[in-house]
Design brief:
- This protein has 224 residues and is an alpha/beta fold.
- The protein has a seven-stranded mixed β-sheet with strand order 3-2-1-4-5-9-8, with helices on both faces.
- The longest helix has 18 residues.
Length: 224
């Protein structure tokens, strides 16, 4: 069980996490986990078919943005790191993508979307912000809209500076500098139950290998 943090601790940790992702942007892909499940996750997203207008939260360096464009009419990609957004923009090079620099925990949409997608972001949302985050996702969707996400539950033993009961981990850059971040090790069954508890109907599935999972679904209609 992951321990609950106080509000001030959460705010402080989220600020440090944002600073980490700005600093890690140039070397982000060098820190990828040593598991070959990219094809399986990509196939799941293709089967989902994220058509229409798509919102990508925490787009990072745009690894998933290009795949979204295979199905989407247009993509709005949001991230708090201008360094990540610069890399993503150079990678996609598409006029069908609108990039928005914003702190996702403070940002509000200026329109609604057919699909919301986030890759390897949910585990960085503290449990204390889980329900508000999913409320935001619901506010971003058109009636009948859908969500799809991919993530992992991997935490290396040397990252667990506050023990396994804490969601705080320590991440190091190539230069050895250390940064605290959030990493919630969601279990598939627990995550699906937690989503049901905040008004979502989502199927969460583990990949065949590695600590990865993906989920797809929609908010439960208010009249049900």
């Amino acid at each position: 069980m992951i321990a609950v943090m106080g509000a001030s601790d959460v705010d402080r940790l989220l600020s440090e996490q944002a600073a980490y992702y700005r600093a890690v942007a140039p070397e982000y892909e060098q820190h990828a986990l040593p598991f070959d499940v990219g094809d399986e996750l990509a196939a799941a997203l293709d089967a989902f078919r994220p058509t229409g207008s798509v919102l990508e939260l925490a787009c990072g360096p745009g690894i998933w943005t290009g795949q979204l464009l295979r199905h989407a009419a247009d993509v709005t990609a949001v991230d708090a790191s201008p360094e990540m957004l610069a890399i993503a923009s150079a990678r996609t090079g598409s006029e069908r993508v609108r990039f928005v620099e914003a702190n996702i925990f403070e940002w509000r949409p200026d329109r609604r979307y057919d699909v919301v997608f986030f890759g390897f972001w949910l585990s960085h949302v503290p449990l204390e912000r889980f329900a508000p985050f999913w409320s935001l996702v619901a506010d971003c969707l058109e009636p009948g809209g859908r969500v799809f996400f991919v993530d992992d539950a991997h935490r290396a033993p040397d990252e667990l500076i506050e023990g396994e009961s804490s969601s705080t981990v320590l991440r190091r850059l190539n230069d050895g500098s250390a940064h605290r971040a959030i990493k919630v090790p969601h279990r598939v069954d627990e995550l699906q139950e937690r989503l049901t508890g905040v008004g979502w109907r989502v199927e969460v599935r583990a990949t065949t290998t590695g600590p990865f999972y993906w989920g797809a679904g929609s908010p439960v209609p208010l009249d049900e």
